[in-house]
Amino acid sequence: MSQTSKQISYAALRPRLRDGMSILFGGFLGVGTPEGIVGEILDSGVRDLTIIGNDTGTPEVGIGVLVANKRVKKVISSHIGTNAETGRQMIAGELDVELVPQGTLAERIRCGGSGLGGVLTPTGVGTIVEEGKTKLNFDGIDYLVERPLRADIAILKAHQADDKGNLVYQRAARNFNPIMALAADFVVAEVDEIVPAGAIDPDLVMTPGVLVNALILAEEN
Amino acid sequence: MSQTSKQISYAALRPRLRDGMSILFGGFLGVGTPEGIVGEILDSGVRDLTIIGNDTGTPEVGIGVLVANKRVKKVISSHIGTNAETGRQMIAGELDVELVPQGTLAERIRCGGSGLGGVLTPTGVGTIVEEGKTKLNFDGIDYLVERPLRADIAILKAHQADDKGNLVYQRAARNFNPIMALAADFVVAEVDEIVPAGAIDPDLVMTPGVLVNALILAEEN
Amino acid sequence: MDAKNLIAFRVAQEMKDGDVVNLGIGLPTLVPDYLPEDVHITLQSENGFLGLGPLNGKTLPNLVNAGGKPCGMVPGTAFFDSAMSFCIIRGGHVDVTVLGGLQVDQEGNLANWMVPGKMIPGMGGAMDLVTGAKNVIVAMEHATKEGGAKILKRCTLPLTAAKKVSAIITELAVFRFIDGKLVLTETAPGVTLDDIRARTEAEFVVSPECCEMETPREVQPV
Amino acid sequence: MDAKNLIAFRVAQEMKDGDVVNLGIGLPTLVPDYLPEDVHITLQSENGFLGLGPLNGKTLPNLVNAGGKPCGMVPGTAFFDSAMSFCIIRGGHVDVTVLGGLQVDQEGNLANWMVPGKMIPGMGGAMDLVTGAKNVIVAMEHATKEGGAKILKRCTLPLTAAKKVSAIITELAVFRFIDGKLVLTETAPGVTLDDIRARTEAEFVVSPECCEMETPREVQPV
Questions:
Q1: Residue B147: which of A111, A115, A138 has the nearest Cβ?
Q2: Chain D interface, Cβ < 8 Å to B
Q3: Domains of chain A (ranges, CATH numbers)
Q4: What CATH number was assigned to the domain covering residues C3-35+81-212?
Q5: What is the per-residue pLDDT across B2-42, written as a single tens digit (0 to 9) for each?
Q6: Where are the domains of chain D?
Q7: How far is CA B53 from each of CA B156, C65, C87, rounded to the nearest angstrom?
């Protein structure tokens, strides 16, 4: 780990953004989504994105603004019901949506970040979720083999970071952020506060800094 | 969750102990192992135990005293090299030892506690670890299907607990404890301190209290 | 008291002291209002915590329920990430999940997450909850707004999970799945077996112990 | 300087600033002593942390390395559980793992965890480390105490992992696996190709750029 701070500006993120890239985004109905980074992605003009996360927020909140502004080609998500625009584009054939049970989504991302080839889950057995998937039976129970998910970039929201990128999340804003930190080629976190390395008790770090490539201080705390 | 404290005495654990039971034990070379509970198990006289954890400590430290006192029938562990007695009993045919790669051991316990039927791992492919296991190939990579592990009881060591059983671990004593809290029918933690519910910041809880059935205050802090 | 509150009241009587409970959005969120005084439950929220409480007036940063709405928390709450949240859910650490249903059938199948070509919100955490919780209670009005049956011989909508429902509680009746069979165990005050048959497509057995459904005191028939 | 320290010195020169490194017990733990001044690495310990540091005299509660020995920690250390520890290891988040070896072969296979019927300590975290780390460096003395070859055509002991070794560093030579072939890239000062061939069973290619192995200044030949 380099000894200098990982802090960058929103603008410094631009060279990392490109058409067609895949994005893991933290957050649950916008809580724990880095709104500033989403804004930067919107402003950059990139399109044909694949976005992977719990839900598509609303047309105004969270990742939803990228959907509303037609920058997204594919959504991999557990729930799209709060963003009418996602459903409209899907039904119009403009947007590819892969719906994944929330617990399965979490495990697939965790697998993608931890060198695992997949997990065996009973969730989805006997439903349309099992279509096209390998099914295994052990001790009389059917399981689906659910395969890993990764992305080019993960955009996270944390409350506090230290210079080394160690992250601390607040309340329900944690959700998908810690597992996404494992599963992307480039990991950037928008944070409310950056403190010197050593200022966070090592027991309380929720995402180790070695997983985080860059930090952006949120414009409004 | 009941509104009363989960605290019990060492002696109150006795009715839970029986010959032939399986035990998940926290700790890594004894650090994070509840020495007082191990002592209670020893004193109870139960035998033919199956013990599941990272290593067998030493004949004097950690879970190792149960091995040294011939209470153990089977060990499932990643490493036994620090306890000569484990190796001696194994070679003498008195003790069944299943060696499991450490990361695989962690995942198997996590699966056992989280309703997953297993994970696909590349670890062990091309080694004797793959013997007898289902192998799957995805995208040209071989994976072993590693199946869940659970136990009758999990014995944990934490630094701090609240009345509801929420746990906070200290430094490297965390190791296997949090995942074992998910994977046993009865979960008991030996702790250095018990505080009232609400005294631990909810963001800092490392094991949610609903997973913990009983707390024992360590005799020597 | 309207049908929704009647159902929520009856569901609340299913809870045991110490239960860990996950409540779906809508009707199920009314359940805590009707808990018996000696029953304390811990609410799990799939967005990552155990200890959900009422809002109590003040909104706290990043403290929201799984519907994204501000909520409160009780002393002894614990937060964790989504992977851990579903380890808890899928791993059988949730005693009871209460969800609404579009359709339930006599095999114990539940459909509650999409109507093809019409409404596709996604399953969210429902598939994991129904698969993993020890007790799955479907809390719903007995019939559709148009009066159509929702308790069917076989679900026609895409399933949420197969053969996992433990009980169905409506404003008219309580059904339980016992040894794989749908069994009528309670009928609401003033509701006859014929009323239930008329509004239920599924085949069901009437329990020999079938009794009157408990309702809040103020609506008990005199 | 003895063979072990010579090897540790050379291994240290493999590290790049910012690398996340896991060091096996024994010889590999000497590596940090020989890091170039401008190279800062983060040490991962499989018992659950990133930020392992030297002991610095004072023992802290529950602060031990993966060998169970008291250790220190640097500012910005993070602790986590064993599952997360191996997500990091298996998931490719460790840049370099340095381990000892009983045998390595020309296919890149490593055996370092058991000698059947004789010594069966178990694999600990070694199988995951060798499988998951981006770079796997085997740091070991070139031959056995009896003078037997350890770099073989084919390992005879049970493997730790198949075809995962990136480099072998001994007191005599540096080998790298390039396009699946074992390639000699450096020889220690004063050591001839014939010396190496005599003590190596494996077939290897001599790199056209094969050069003299870097050694600490004090043992450079005059």
A1: A138
A2: 45-49, 60-64, 66-68, 79-83, 85-86, 89-90, 109, 117, 119-128, 131-132, 158-163
A3: 7-115+148-220 (3.40.1080.10)
A4: 3.40.1080.10
A5: 446 899 999 999 999 999 999 999 999 999 999 999 999 99
A6: 3-35+81-212
A7: 11, 36, 20
